[in-house]
Amino acid sequence: MDLYKLSFNNIRRRKLRSSLTMLGIIIGAAMLMALLGVTAGLTTAIQDETNAYMYDVAVTPAAGTGSYLMDSQTVSQIRNRSDLYDFREVTMFSEDVNGTQLYVEGVNNWKDVKVINGTQGVVISQATVEKLGYDIGSKITVKGQELTVTGITKEAQAPYIYVNQSTVRQMADNKVSAIYAQTNGDPKTVADDVEKQVTGVSAETKSEKVNEIQEMTGQALLFMGIIASIALLVGIISVINTMLISVMERTKELGVLKAIGFTNWEIKGSILFESGLLGFLGGFIGVVLGLIGIVVIANLLDLAEYIPGMMPLWLILGVIFGSTLLSILAGLYPAIRASKLNVVEALRNE
User: Fold this and answer.
1) What is the pLDDT at residue 328?
2) Pairwise CA distance, residues 296 & 256, whole Å
3) Triad 114, 160, 164: Cα angle to 5°
4) Sign, CA torsion 111/113/116/122
5) Among residues of the chain, what percentage have pLDDT more than 70?
6) C-alpha 317: how far from chain center
7) What is the pLDDT of residue 258?
8) pTM
9) Main-chain dihedrals φ then ψ at residue 308, nearest 5 degrees
């Protein structure tokens, strides 16, 4: 008699119980796959956006100034520095429009804004369309200046309007939110000098910004992993319960197997194979559902281009392998208990 075939048959004989046991693993594996996958994709998107800015140093108003904009005098001080060049300014402010906070952002390169309908010039986000009812051709008055909407984008989840940087700077009284620049020399040294010599500004290097993003996303990955792992752990506990009940129900059957010559190791192998199979099938199905969830979430968040990065091979194999291994470990105690059954007592069991 093939003990592994016996394990398959035992799962088939108890389809409902096996399905419910796998369901816990499936839910845990799917959550683990989807949460970690989407978080990894968002991390890549943010890092790509940061890397897209060709700068060494970013200068912004210092937190203690209470302002989000730098005046023209401060901007001139920064632009006149010999250790900075290739400047790129960005001005952003918010305006209350019909009770909704509308964010106005200056655009230097329209290639950075993906227009899905209409043309460049005055582009609003989809959220602006939904919350304020604007469309192409609509008139929006910002800081006393009337703007005509020329296009729509999905770039932001909040109400945004994108206009040429020169226009936005003019509307903001010639003030700037951030200045990006290349450096002549070590970026960190230049950044420190800027903070010391220019009042009311904070300077951060690109590497510092990337490290800050990596730290934040690393914490997010850890948090999401813990949440999903708890769900998977619940599924693994159900494996222990299922295998213990299975051993009790099959006491006489296991006694017969031992009586005809099967060793303790073979009995253990049968139980562990059965629990591992439940984990493997649950993990595999969970990964498939998780991948479907990733595609759905990525499209909802307009991150379809990052879908491949949300499905790393290490994560797929890791979830399946982890589910299988944890299920085998969960079946270890029931397997040991089954191997220690007394043949005579087992055969007497009804």
Assistant:
1) 85
2) 51
3) 65
4) negative
5) 84
6) 18
7) 66
8) 0.59
9) -55, -35
CB 298 within 8 A of CB 307: yes
Q: Which residue intervals of the chain are DSSP H helices? A: 3-13, 15-52, 72-79, 126-132, 165-171, 187-197, 206-249, 251-259, 264-300, 307-310, 313-330, 332-339, 343-348
Measured distance CA(154)–CA(229) in Å, rounded: 33
The one-letter amino acid at 121: G
Q: How many residues does the chain have?
A: 350
Dihedral (C-alpha) 267, 269, 272, 277: value to the nearest 10 degrees?
-120
Contact 94, 171 (CB under 8 A): no
pLDDT in tens, 71-98: 999 999 999 999 999 899 999 999 888 8
Question: Exposure pattern of 210-240 as b/e (b: 16+ CB <10 Å)?
Answer: eeeeeeebeebbeebeeebbebbeebbebbb
- Interatomic CA distance for residues 331 and 95, integer angstroms: 61
> Comparing C-alpha atoms, which of 172, 160, 105 is closest to residue 134?
160
Q: Across residues 98-109, what is the average pLDDT?
A: 89
Own/partner contacts of 84-88, CB < 8 Å, gap of 24 or more, are 84/57, 84/181, 84/182, 84/183, 84/184, 84/190, 84/194, 85/181, 85/182, 85/183, 85/184, 86/54, 86/55, 86/181, 86/182, 87/179, 87/180, 87/181, 88/53, 88/55, 88/179, 88/180, 88/181
Could you tell me how far CA 71 lies from the centroid of its own chain? 37
Retrieve residue 18's tokens: 């096996």
Q: What are phi and psi of 89, to 5 degrees?
A: -100, 150
Which residues, at least 6 apart from 213, have a Cβ–Cβ distance to it below 8 Å?
43, 46, 47, 50
Q: Residues 339, 265: contact at Cβ < 8 Å?
A: yes
What span, in angstroms and rounded, lies between the C-alpha atoms of 279 and 21?
A: 9
- Name the residue with tokens 């989840």: 157
